[in-house]
Amino acid sequence: NYKKELEIVEKPSKTKCGAHFLLQANVEFLEELPRIKTHGAEGVGLLRTETILFQKTGFDLEAQLDFYRKVVEASGDKPVTIRLFDAGGDKLLEDAETESNPFLGWRGIRMLLDQNELLTNQLKAIYILSGEYPGRIKLLVPMVSCNSEIEKLKENISSIKEELKSENTNFDDNLPLGVMVEVPSVALMADRLAKLVDFFSIGTNDLTQYTLAVDRGNEKISTLYQPFHPAVWKLIRMTKEGADQYGIPVTVCGEMASKPKAAACLMGLGITNLSMTTSALPKVKSMLCNHSLSEMQKLAEDVSESNSPDEVISLLEGFGS
Ligand code: PEP
Ligand code: MG
């Protein structure tokens, strides 16, 4: 029952053998905020900001700050990772132009780099917030597909910092900058990108659709949408290995992290930070608390050698039982 399920929330985030892990919340709407505490999230690993963007006031600096402050306050003293607007694809602005391939189109960072006012306003809001809550805010960039996008974004960040300095506004000069790994090119080049950023966050929802060329929202081909495809798993491993070369942390914030046995498998790969919808936190935590790292590593090794999604699914089903 519900009450029993939440007992796990009070327990330390450690595996059976004592290895630490970090479970955080994916947040999109203000209604979700109370569950950060009740479900034991240690901060927000992914704040989707499209809700505010799609409101009439979304472009407004104060309206943004107000939204972000509510999320940070609801997170106690824990960190909050704010993702830049990820408009385009399945998250369309009302007056969006029609594109023949929206998922391969003007989306996320691609759009932001062309819409200077939108980007500047959001960066400014996030940097101001970082001054109000030192050490607690991180910045995450969606839909990155090449290094140059990060280089360009950094130029924008430098100008924002100059502007804030000239206004005597406080901000965190070392605000951690992270990249969503959700396009295969980024996973493949993770070892080169890792030196440009402070962390990676793997978005398995988009990584699955782009790796398998399967639209995540198209019901006709939904059976082909296989997050447990070994190809997706291979890209997750490459991302982790790339990150390890520069010692930057990796989070998984896609749906995969919310499936307890998949979470165990990710942990077996050395990915100890997972961010998910709050309702999944207790069951994932209980899975990780009740198994040892060596069991999870064995699972991750077996999954790495699999040839098909079915093989991966049956390995996961057999885990821990
Ligand atoms: C993802 O793609 O896995 C992700 C977490 O981002 P979104 O679902 O918002 O596209
Ligand atoms: Mg995504």
TrEMBL record:
Q: Which reaction does it catalyse?
A: L-histidyl-[protein] + phosphoenolpyruvate = N(pros)-phospho-L-histidyl-[protein] + pyruvate
What's the EC number here? 2.7.3.9
Q: Which intervals of the chain form a coiled coil?
A: 143-170
Query: What UniProt keywords are attached to this protein's entry?
Result: Coiled coil, Cytoplasm, Kinase, Magnesium, Metal-binding, Phosphotransferase system, Pyruvate, Sugar transport, Transferase, Transport
Residues annotated as binding Mg(2+) are E182, D206
Q: Which cofactor does it need?
A: Mg(2+)
Task: Give me the Gene Ontology terms describing cellular component.
Answer: cytoplasm
- PEP-utilising enzyme C-terminal domain: residues covered: 7-289
Chief location: cytoplasm
The yes or no answer to whether the keyword Transferase is present is: yes
Protein name as annotated: Phosphoenolpyruvate-protein phosphotransferase
Q: Which residues of the full protein are shown?
A: 248 to 568 of 568
